[in-house]
């Protein structure tokens, strides 16, 4: 970790609110399903399945709505759970 990354990691998050919808989804599905979904979402950019396709698959498989922008934000670690290291 660089000095800058270390310094930034020490700054407390000022974001408040609920965790991202991807994190909430992880908690609402069985462990085996969660592991498979994490693998798909956290795949390298080269083999990455588009967020829209994942959103549609989640809706079809679980009847839950997770917008593609939520998946994108989670992938970039720009969501609340990403900023708090969860």
What does the model show?
The chain is mainly α and 86 residues long. It has one domain (18-83). The protein has 6 helices and no strands. The longest helix has 12 residues, at 51-62. The mean pLDDT is 85.
How many whole angstroms does the radius of gyration measure? Answer: 14 Å
Low-pLDDT residue spans: none
Q: Report the strand count.
A: 0
The percent range for strand residues is under 5%
Q: Which series of helices and strands comes N to C? A: HHHHHH
The shape is globular
> Mean pLDDT across all residues, rounded?
85
Domain count: the total is 1
Count of separate DSSP helical elements: 6
Helix/strand/pairing class, anyone? mainly alpha
Bin the helical content.
55-70%
Q: What's the main sheet like?
A: none
User: Could you tell me how far the N terminus lies from the C terminus, measured between alpha carbons in angstroms?
Assistant: 18 Å
Layout: helices, strands, pairs:
Blueprint: H1 3-10, H2 21-28, H3 31-41, H4 51-62, H5 68-75, H6 80-83
Write a short abstract of this structure:
By secondary structure, the chain is mainly alpha-helical. The protein has helices spanning 3-10, 21-28, 31-41, 51-62, 68-75, 80-83.
